[in-house]
UniProtKB/TrEMBL annotation:
One matching Pfam family: Proton_antipo_M
Transmembrane segments: 6-25, 32-52, 75-95, 107-125, 160-183, 203-228, 240-263, 275-293, 302-320, 332-352, 364-387, 407-429, 450-467
Residue ranges that the Swiss-Prot or TrEMBL entry lists as coiled coil: none
Record domain NADH-Ubiquinone oxidoreductase (complex I) chain 5 N-terminal: where: 66-108
NADH:quinone oxidoreductase/Mrp antiporter transmembrane domain segment(s): 124-420
Entry keywords, A to Z: Cell membrane, Membrane, Oxidoreductase, Transmembrane, Transmembrane helix
Lineage, opening ranks: Bacteria, Bacillati, Bacillota, Clostridia, Eubacteriales
Family the entry assigns: Belongs to the CPA3 antiporters (TC 2.A.63) subunit A family.
Major site of localization recorded for this protein: membrane
Membrane topology, from the record: Multi-pass membrane protein
The organism's place on the tree of life at top rank: Bacteria
Compartment annotation: Cell membrane; Membrane
This protein's name: Monovalent cation/H+ antiporter subunit D family protein
């Protein structure tokens, strides 16, 4: 019976969502209800990890293929903690920010539901369960992307659906092919395909490529990345969720599950599938950085930055060695906290000044020193300047490339870091060192509901850089089990 508690952090957010839609709270009541709900969900999550630990639960089993199976292991613990903690900060930030977006109740209905879906992805014990929650994620986040209801928002939402369902088709194809061979889609360290003797190498390659490209859509793998910058039409809290926590990280998480729990590192090496995928990943890292350089809109520059930075995580996955996987998992965590900070800061600027372009924020650092100070710290961390958390994850990724004898991977990381500096540092210099525009002289810092989450996550960013060992040690245990 103890294992059934795994259902609580997955389905409680859905209950929150339904109650918000039924009772039509006023602003204060809704804010209290939503914030108390996500905090309670986080407490429940930690309690399960402490008192129950790793466990599994079959929710529904029709046959060997259609088996809704939830499981807690070290990887799901890592991802679910990241999600639940950052969701709390986003909730408080959204209380203030969504005032000028309107339709707050509708936002919080889908916002809380998305938390439950993402927790379902984290706790999926097999590929079919992951697939179901993965598609629910598309449906839950679609209303958030089109929240404003403008023509541009509807167009972006349409593109998001087309790309997401296109990727889902590839995943379904790979999943059916895999099941036809293994009759088992459960997540097993080392991969279920590794247990198939005398298999067809080309078929294994087809399964791997199909699943990688399918899940790679949400992970913004080039050439399937263009939906992500288009989704910037959504409110900033949604952008932060898309780029830092829910959607793109779920894509990366699914790729880790598929690579190391379904196909397996040994099978991938035999098929040489990782070599083919590494070409796309290298293009993703460099192309994302170059595209970011050409964006003058703040949110779009961060969007293309996400495309590039996600390539780092994917690189850690396909290098197939322990150091690289540690680096990839570390960057999954570090990029999440860094990018959500950057988006929160940009959202705060937009909320207080209605400015969206880099050229419009000259001298704003003097009016909003805390916001822009946090932005500067996060930018330095994303570049990977020591002793930031971004440096730690990129260090392990570079080691992983050198272990494989692929010096050019380390060179790509270094080149991308230079490009990251070129597209982020100008924002800082414009804000702090350019003469202020006359129309932003009266700008003040954001309300505390927005400022406290920004400062809090910035502190986490700094701590992850100065004291990375606890997280690194935990991630090394995960990597050791898989490679």
């Amino acid at each position: 019976m103890n294992s059934a508690v795994i259902l609580l952090p997955v389905f409680f957010p859905f209950v929150l969502s339904i109650l918000i839609s039924i009772f039509k709270f006023d602003e204060r009541g809704r804010n209290i209800f939503a914030s108390a709900g996500v905090i309670f969900n986080c407490i429940v999550l930690f309690s399960i990890f402490y008192y129950v630990g790793e466990c599994s639960f079959h929710l529904f089993k029709f046959n060997d293929f259609l088996d809704i199976y939830l499981k807690i292991d070290k990887l799901s613990i890592l991802f679910s903690i990241l999600v639940s903690v950052l969701w709390i900060f986003t909730t408080f930030y959204s209380m203030e920010y969504m005032k000028h977006e309107g339709k707050e109740n509708r936002f919080f209905i889908f916002f809380t539901a998305t938390l439950g879906v993402t927790m379902g992805i984290a706790f999926s014990g097999n590929l079919i369960t992951l697939y179901i929650f993965y598609e629910l994620l598309t449906l839950a986040t679609f209303p958030l992307v089109i929240h404003s209801g403008t023509k541009q928002a509807l167009s972006s939402g349409k593109k998001y659906l087309i790309y997401s369902f296109g990727g889902a088709t590839l995943v379904l194809l790979g999943m059916i092919l895999c099941f036809s061979i293994t009759k088992n889609l459960n997540f097993v360290p080392g991969g279920v395909l590794a247990g198939v003797s005398g298999g067809n190498t080309k078929l294994f390659l087809g399964i791997y490529v199909s699943l990688f490209l399918g899940f790679g859509v949400k992970a913004a793998l080039v050439p399937f990345h263009s939906w992500l910058p288009e989704a910037m039409v959504a409110p900033t809290p949604v952008s932060a969720l898309l780029h830092a926590v829910a959607v793109v990280k779920s894509g990366a998480y699914a790729l880790i599950r598929m690579s190391y729990f379904i196909v397996g590192a040994d099978v991938i090496r035999v098929t040489k599938g990782h070599i083919y995928m590494s070409v796309l990943i290298g293009v993703t890292i460099i192309m994302g950085s170059f595209l970011a350089l050409h964006q003058q809109n703040l949110k779009k520059r961060l969007a293309y930055s996400t495309v590039s930075q996600l390539g780092y995580i994917l690189l850690g996955i396909v290098l197939l060695n322990e150091d690289a996987l540690v680096g990839g998992l570390l960057h999954l965590i570090n990029h999440a906290v860094i990018k959500i900070t950057l988006f929160f800061c940009v959202g705060t600027i937009m909320y207080m000044t209605h400015k969206t372009e880099i050229s419009e924020i000259k001298g704003i650092g003097k009016q909003m020193p805390i916001t822009m100070g946090c932005f500067a710290i996060a930018a330095i961390s994303l570049i990977g300047i020591p002793p930031s958390n971004g440096f730690v994850s990129k260090w392990y990724l570079a080691l992983g490339g050198l272990v494989e004898g692929k010096i050019y991977f380390a060179a790509i990381l270094l080149f991308s870091a230079v490009l990251t500096a070129l597209y982020l540092l100008p924002i800082v210099t414009v804000a702090f060192f350019k003469k202020e525009n006359n129309d932003v002289i009266e700008v003040k810092e954001a309300p505390m509901k927005m400022l406290v989450p920004i400062v809090s996550i910035t502190v986490i960013v700094v701590l992850l850089g100065l004291f990375p060992n606890p997280v690194v040690t935990f991630i090394q245990k995960i990597a050791a089990e898989l490679i």
